[in-house]
Amino acid sequence: MAVEACDKQKLMDDMDDDDEPLVFKRSSSAAKQNQSVSETKKSLSQKHDRQLGKPAPDIRSQNGQSTMVEKSKMASSSKTPPVRSPLASPKSSNSSAKSFAVKSSGVNSKPSTSVADESNSVKQQSRDKRPLTEATAELNEESEDSDDDKPLTARLSAGFSKINSNHANKGPNASILGQKPKIPKSEDSDDEIPLSSKFQVKSNAGDSSKKSPTSGGRKPLSAKCDHNGLGSPERKPSSSTILKKRPADGVKSAGESHLKRPKLSDASASNKNKETSIKAELKEEDDEDHVPISARMKKSTSSDKKPSSSKNITKPVSSLSKKINKKSKKVTKKSEYSKSSKVPPGSGEGQKWTTLVHNGVIFPPPYKPHGVKMLYKGKPVDLTPEQEEVATMFAVMLDTDYMNKPKFKENFMDDWRKILGKNHVIQSLEHCNFTPIYEWHQKEKEKKKQMSADEKKALKEEKLKQEDKYMWAIVDGVKEKVGNFRVEPPGLFRGRGEHPKMGKLKKRIRPSDIVINIGKDAPIPECPIPGESWKEVRHDNTVTWLAYWNDPINPKEFKYVFLAASSALKGQSDKEKYEKARLLKDYIQDIRATYTKNFTSKDPTKKQIAVATYLIDKLALRAGNEKDDDEADTVGCCTLKVENVEPVPPNILKFDFLGKDSIRYQNEVEVETAVFRAIQEFRRGKKGGDDLFDKLDTSKLNAHLKELMPGLTAKVFRTYNASITLDDMLSRETKGGDVAEKVVVYQLANKEVAIICNHQRTVSKSHSAQMLRLNEKIEELKGVLEELQTDLARAKKGKPPLKNADGKPKRNLNPDALERKIAQTTAKIEKMERDKETKEDLKTVALGTSKINYLDPRITVAWCKRHEVPIEKIFNKSLLAKFAWAMDVDPSFRF
DNA sequence: GAGTCGACTTGCGGCTAAGAAC
DNA sequence: GTTCTTAGCCGCAAGTCGACTC
């Protein structure tokens, strides 16, 4: 049981002393200890399993059995609450054997850096403080056989190939205001290839694979509703505790309303689907249900031939689901497309904490004027500190691409002019020369770089000392790391893509801008700036933020201070996310049958929903919310424009659009004929800029998805497809070998997911130079190889080797030695070729994003345990902390 | 039901320390 | 020992989606 924060001030004092969060390092004995402890205490994860309708295992997980786990040792701070039981992971069903193969030209075989011992420790996350009686509830996890022992069969084969190129938002090199040097941009055309284009979807006649035994007995997510401890009376906040929600911010003026796409009227408000299956019992041998997206892509058109599940997929709602969705059912009755089921989000609703103590936020230091004068029409200009500060913000960006963006400069000048005043000598940006300030800044940077290691260390320690008290919060008696406790410093807004507000001044945030959220009984954080005070102090335990302020660029939006990713609150919500995605596995068959059936629906809304869901499922597209005009012009599935999707007969769809972060998505996909025809129909009579899905928006789509599975939204498909792809690839491709080889398998799977999700990165500036160097080395080694082969031939004839390039005689080696050298050199060349290929292959692929956000960590942990790969080879220290809740997963876990 | 608000999650790029290569 | 390269942390922008209001 956690120690209640009875003496909060003392706890906060203690917080200053500790520099590490509560962690546990488990030794085998500790594991045993955990086990016994956990017999009396229900872990958070178990609770959540139950909330999710999944019984927790009644057999403890085999903690401490794997090498990885044995490494860990239990440790706890004397000043922090005692550790609680580790999380027992549910056993899970295996996905059925699916086949697909990915063509990949290379793999980044480099293992991640190992982490220090302390990084092996994982934070104790189980913080369940509920009564023992509740905790000991019998949990009957359905157990499904693992197919770990089964031979890995080759499954589908998916041919991925590059199509064509380019990154969207990579503008040409900026010309520099103030004659600053430019950073040349890579011209390498291949650099621009979006990941999504790197594979081509081909159709293939159906291979049939077995469907995994689905867990018919698994409770729907909605079961949480009944079990949600948070909603239980003892956890319910008192009326005084749950405070008013944030009032509508008055900042927004009427004039700020933006042109929006007209909302759609509900097309088919009929109730015929009110009984639409939550979980249909169609357990037909449909082969694609658990096939990872990449595998299915290969088979896309084959389903044309298949009866698209002509079964009646409308099933009665399970009683459990009915229980949950009392509220939503009303809505559902009215319309199958209206906002419906409000699935209780495990952590999304209700009380999040009982006690919360923290020290507020830390502000950036006040501006220190440097006095370096910029030039206007060639003459030095005097600026006030405030004016100079903004000029400096611009000057330090002279070597960025923003200098190529007129909008950036225009917005900057508009805001700077307000500070300069009407009559200031500076009237036009054109005549400004910021070079002196830029150079001063470069020198400062250089000075910092040149500091000795000791000086740097001292500086770091000083900073840490100042920040330490802000780094921690105590949530329900448990010390947790705070994520972003630093208030954003003033600067120029760096919007991505062609953001209409780029270059605008982000003003300095003051205490009077900040709303603090803290426990009712906790001491209110002292305002760190003398003479100033917080805007407001709240005690809202239904939210997880510790502080927020209005975004100075979009005052109607907010910047929040949250707990770090390693916190229990975040971990809990992470786990729920993955559990929801796992649940989709049980529904996916019916969902796919439903949308396939509706491809030809006469109801246009239904038809659009079907096609959109298909694209989201098949291509892992984002939902695509409406956007205001003062945001970058990017789209997702529901907001695709006619010009973004080009049908190429007989059944290819060419996608080309800017997605999140203005990252270009380019892909050519072979789709089912019915989808192809539907897209042609949706385009008919429309202009390029018109909405492809004119009868659809995200709320309508999500409302429909919720009718198919409780809590299902568009984004769940991304998580599901990413995780199931990883699980499947790891299971199929891991065939032994040493740790390094297994890590390569993991990276390959990770890369596949990154491609599916279109996670791109900018090609490093030195990429071409690196490639050039590698090529040179390879050529050099090839020359050496040739010489060695000549020498060998001569040696075999008893002749001495030829002289080397310098004309000097070489060592006279015997044929055996020469053969060994040849083998070594050949291996070296091969390795370099592989490295080169990998480097080229991954130059635009970002592996980290999917690992952090989309891949259920339990897949990774279980795989590591099964194959004796140290988890540190896959997860760095941060990920180990973030995924602490997943560390005790059973080795047989499958997504 | 549409529009907006609010609370989160997701995502990329910059900076920097650590490690590899020379 | 120095330079180069990269992993990882951090900042903050940009999404998603449920709740609320009118």
Defining key terms:
single chain; 895 residues; alpha+beta; DNA Topoisomerase I, domain 2; four-stranded mixed β-sheet; three-stranded antiparallel β-sheet; disordered N terminus; DNA-binding
Q: What can you tell me about this protein's structure?
A:
The chain has 895 residues and is of the alpha+beta class. Among the domains are: 356-475 and 484-562, Beta Complex (DNA Topoisomerase I, domain 2), CATH 2.170.11; 767-842. The strands form five sheets. A four-stranded mixed beta sheet has the order 10-9-11-12, with no helix packed on it. A three-stranded antiparallel beta sheet has the order 1-5-6, covered by helices on one side. It starts with 7 loop residues before the first helix and ends in a 13-residue tail after the last helix. The protein is 36% helix and 6% strand. The chain binds a DNA duplex (22 and 22 nucleotides) through strand 12, helix 16, helix 19, helix 20 and helix 24. Residues 1-353 are annotated as: Disordered. Belongs to the type IB topoisomerase family.
Largest sheet: 4 strands, mixed
Distance between the termini: 31 Å
Secondary structure: number of strands: 15
Number of helices: 26
Which radius of gyration do the C-alpha atoms yield?
A: 30 Å
In the CATH hierarchy, what is the class of the domain at 356-475 and 484-562? Mainly Beta
Shape designation? globular
CATH superfamily of the domain at 356-475 and 484-562: DNA Topoisomerase I, domain 2
What is the CATH architecture term of the domain at 356-475 and 484-562?
A: Beta Complex
> Helical content, roughly?
25-40%
Strand coverage percent: 5-15%
> What would you call the structural class?
alpha+beta
Q: What name does the CATH topology of the domain at 356-475 and 484-562 carry?
A: DNA Topoisomerase I, domain 2
Which runs of at least 5 residues are low in confidence (pLDDT < 50)? Answer: 1-348
- Oligomeric state: single chain
